Amino acid sequence: MKYLLLVSHGDFSKGLRQTLSMFAGDPVKSVIAVGLKKDEAASTLEKRFEDTVSNLPDDSEFVILADVIGGSPLTTVCNVLNNHGKLQGSLVMGGMNFPMALTATMSKDSLSNEDLQKKIISEATDAIKVFDTTQSSDDLSDDDI
């Protein structure tokens, strides 16, 4: 089974997973949220994540989205996955946002990692827009947002 692993500082990954459940429904069952808590040592996160990985099927694969590439949460998670022989072949990306997570959730099982990476980057960058606040609220529709 292929899992989407959301990795962050604090509760960002958990909040993102909760929001995904509003949009994606059942596919969120394959989404795991891991966050380094405030004042928590990376070794504590390592132990928590070790327990999570130990309870997953041996053939598990991962798409990993992190808030920051090179941050303690991501490096800790990658070390644990590497120790279990599960990092090789994983797709790891940083700059996590909602469009990336939704695209990964809905497409991870149907696309190769290479195609998924392209789609995630495309969706994430296309979603970055400036909201025009100069229009009157009467003139706005859902299509404008």
UniProtKB/TrEMBL annotation:
Gene Ontology terms for molecular function: transferase activity
Pfam families tied to this protein: EIIA-man
InterPro entries noted in UniProt: Bacterial_PTS_sugar_comp (IPR051471), PTS_EIIA_man-typ (IPR004701), PTS_EIIA_man-typ_sf (IPR036662)
Ion transport listed as a keyword: no
Highest taxon, organism lineage: Bacteria
Matching Gene3D superfamilies: Phosphotransferase system, mannose-type IIA component
GO CC annotation terms, alphabetical: membrane
GO biological process, one term: phosphoenolpyruvate-dependent sugar phosphotransferase system
The entry's keywords: Transferase
PTS EIIA type-4 domain residues: 1-128
Record PROSITE patterns: PTS_EIIA_TYPE_4 (PS51096)
PANTHER family the record matches: PTS PERMEASE-RELATED-RELATED (PTHR33799), PTS SYSTEM MANNOSE-SPECIFIC EIIAB COMPONENT-RELATED (PTHR33799:SF1)
Protein name, UniProt field: PTS fructose transporter subunit IIA
Species this chain originates from: Companilactobacillus heilongjiangensis
